[in-house]
Amino acid sequence: MNRISKVFLIAAVSIALLAVSYYVFSRPEGFLEFDDPYHRGRPLAEGKTFMVASGHPLATKTALEILSQGGNAADAGIAALLVLNVTQGEEASFPGVAPLLYYDAESDRVESYIGAGKAPSKATIEYFRSRGHEYIPTLKYSSQLIPASPDVIVSLLKKYGTMSFEQVSLPAIRIAEKGFPVHRILMRNLNMNVFKRIGFSVLLPYNAEIYLDRKWWKPLYHKEIFRRPRLAETFRRLADAEAGSKRNGADRNRALDSVRNYFYEGPIADRIVEAHEKNDGTITRKDLAEYFGAWEKPLQGKYGPYTIFSNRTWNQGAVVPLALQV
Fold this sequence. Notes:
Blueprint: H1 3-26, H2 57-68, H3 73-87, E1 100-104, E2 109-113, H4 125-130, H5 149-159, H6 165-178, E3 180-181, H7 184-190, H8 194-203, H9 205-211, E4 225-226, H10 229-247, H11 252-264, H12 267-278, H13 285-289, E5 295-296, E6 299-303, E7 306-310, H14 319-323
Antiparallel strand pairs: 1-2, 2-5, 3-4, 6-7
Helix pairs in contact: 2-3, 3-6, 5-11, 6-10, 8-9, 10-11
C-alpha cells in the first residue's frame, strides 16, 4: 500500500470513528409522549367554570390545576408564567419582562402593572459613546434592562392572589427538574447546525451552558427530554426564602416580600451584579434594590360595543386600542 493510500485509509477510518462517536454521544437520553400542538389546527375548547389560554399545554394544565385547587386567576396566571419560563425560556425568560393586565371581578376594574423593567442608571448616551457605540449593542450585558418579572409576581400575589409563591412555583420546579418534551417552537429557536452551535457557545457561553448543556455537538430531537435544573434551583431558593420568613413569624405579605428581597437585594442580586462587573455591564446593586414597578390605569379604546384595554405606551400593546380608533 503506497503512502497516499495509507493517508486516505487513515482519513476514512477517522471520519468513520467521528461519525460513530457523534451518533453515540448526540443521542438523547429518552423521549416523552407529547401531542405537540404547534403549527397545526386544534379543536375548540369549551368550559363552564373557568378557562385558561397560554403558550404551552403544560402551562395551561398547571393553571387549570391551580384553579381546581381553589386558587384564583392571579395565582393561576403566575403559575402559568413560571411554567412558560421553563418550557419557553428562550422566548419568555425568567427574570425578564412581564407586562400585566388584571381584571378584578369584585370591583369590575381592569388594572395595568408596569412590568417592563427600566434602563440601569449607568446606561446613558455618554456611557455607550465612550465605548464606541452609536447604538445600544446587542449580545452584551450593557444592553440588559433591570429584571421586572420577580417584582410583578410578588406585586400581583400580594394584591390579588391567595396562594404562596411556594405553591404557585412548585409545578414549574417539578417540570424543570423532571424535564419536558422538546416542542417545535424550541426546535425552531435552538436546533441550530453544528457551526451555529459552536458560534453560540463562543459568543454567549452562559446561554449555551443553559440551553446546550455545554454539548455544542448535540442537536435537539423533537420530544426528547429537556431539563432546566438551574432555573428549578432558582425558583426553589426563592420559595425557601418565603418559607424561612414564615417560620420567623412573617405574615403572607411580608413573606412574599422576602421573595422579592432575595432576588433584588440578596444572593441573586449579588450574582447579577458580579456578572455585570466582570462583563462591562451596567446593572448595579443600587439599581436592583431601588427597582419597583407600579399599578396604573390601563389604556383603553372603544371598538363597536366593546372596550379594549392594554398596557400604556411603555409596551407595544398600546398599538391595538389606538389602531382601532382609526
